[in-house]
Design brief:
Immunoglobulin-like; two-stranded antiparallel sheet; four-stranded antiparallel β-sheet; mainly beta; 93 residues; 6 strands
Amino acid sequence: SKNVTVWSVKLTPCDGHPCSLIKGKNATIDIDFLAEKDIEPGNASVHGKIGEVYTPLPLPAGDMCQNLAPSCPVQAGKNYTYSYTVDISEAYP
């Protein structure tokens, strides 16, 4: 959302910069942010750089509020963590 300040993005496992992920394994991403305005729940999207190309990464199905702590509603002036685990596809280069 354009109405947040991102404090940090943490990827686990991550053994350096850039992170090297292993195909067929899972990775967990945690995004800590401050809501600058009240935000209605909706669709989230994340892109990762694979080689020189930014590729959309699959997110969990369903309500984004299930992966948010504290849960919705997202209120201005509060800090939140969006966390999810993604499978690293064997199809990625």
